[in-house]
Amino acid sequence: MVEKKYLNLYRMMKNRICSGEYAAGEKLPSKRVMADKTGCSTITVERAYAMLAEEGYIKTRERSGYYVCALDVFLKDRRIKEQVGFSYLPEEKDSRNRDFEYSLWFKTVRRVLSEKGDRLFVKSPNKGCAVLRNAIADYLLTYRGMVAEPARIIIGSGSEQLYESVVKILGRDKCFGIEDPSYEQIEAVYLGEGVRISKLAMGADGIESEALLKGEMDVLHVTPFCSYPTGVTTSASKRYEYLKWAGEGRYIVEDDFNSEFFMPGQPIEPLYSLDSKASVIYINTFSKSLSPSMRMGYMILPEALMPIYDERLGQFSCTVPVLDQYVLAEFIASGNFERHLNRMRRKMKV
Questions:
Q1: Residue 115 has pLDDT above 50, yes or no
Q2: Least enclosed by CB within 10 Å: which of 33, 47, 256, 304?
Q3: Contact 166, 299 (CB under 8 A)
Q4: CA-CA distance, 63 to 321, in Å (whole number)?
Q5: What is the mean pLDDT of the segment spanning 196-223?
Q6: Which residues pair with 155 in a beta bridge?
Q7: DSSP label at 92?
Q8: Strand 251-255, strand 219-222: pairing
């Protein structure tokens, strides 16, 4: 009740000062007098005056009392804001993954909050939290047959941010070859980063051989599992053709978007697993497999690029909140992620 009186008195005094009822430089009633006027205790008045002083509405003079500060500039800005007004933005359209069991995710959030405690308030390492990098490495090995050292897994906030990181690692002097047509954001990000791009015509099973051989690119960005918007899945022979092109300073960015939803009989072995020259930078995200709102992804760098990453990006903080990293790590480690994917695959078969 005391707190309510203190806040009410603070608001009343603030309004009177802002309205000009108490002029700049005017002395306020003493704490005892104000207490008698308002029916509050002197402690309540003291707390209200202290907050007004802290916010710059009044100031104290030793052995004299409290005086109103000059607020002409502040009041002018306030009047302008009140006159202008604004329109509220409409609420975003619902883009949830309707097949995702959000209650299970929230249950995981509660468990992490309960069990991890102060760990969630420690700054994330540059490459991401070890718990998530370890969980991703275990998942890739168990369910995808991919061997990825956790130390080479970099956590980022979605594919676009990871594309930007690739440019910073490899350099803006490189020419990036992309599928034509391709997901529009791939081209947009690379152009935004100032690199040259070469559009490579798509055939029935991937980039046409002639375009691959005659292209002047230093880096090849491909989506071999399911190219967008064509829906082309790269054939096994074409994947080896890509790998033959790579090496000797050339790199392939394998964008493995949507690959978790493979169906029996389709080729699912990524370029990363076929690569014998350590020339593939593997990128994947959770925005499709879980929810568009979960801006989390990862890339796996070849060992030779790790020192360059440390030199060029090692001073930047991880862009994914620590809480999100711990929750996703627990979601993966508990088997909930794979069970979710299995449910999705079954629905896709119906």
A1: yes
A2: 304
A3: yes
A4: 50
A5: 94
A6: 298
A7: P
A8: parallel
- Taking residues 91-103, report their average pLDDT: 72
Residue 288: φ, ψ to 5°? -90, -45
Cβ contact 112:332 at 8 Å: no
Please report, for the chain, how many H helices and E strands are present, in that order. 14, 9
Q: Catalogue the long-range contacts made by 93-99 (C-beta closer than 8 Å, 24 or more residues apart).
A: 95/292, 95/293, 96/291, 96/293, 97/290, 97/291, 97/292, 99/343, 99/344, 99/347
Q: The tokens 């020419």 sit on which residue?
A: 175
SS3 category, 90: coil
pLDDT tens-digit profile of 128-164?
Answer: 999 999 999 999 998 888 999 999 999 999 899 999 9
63-72, 122-131, 244-253: range with highest mean pLDDT: 122-131
Segment (H or E) for 259: none
C-alpha distances in Å from residue 154, one per residue of 61, 144, 300: 57, 18, 6
Taking alpha carbons only, the member of 304, 278, 295 closest to residue 155 is 295
Residue 336: Cβ-neighbour burial (10 angstroms; 0-12, 13-18, 19+): middle
Element (H, E) at 331: helix 322-333
Q: State mean pLDDT over 282-304.
A: 89
Residue 2: its pLDDT value, please? 44
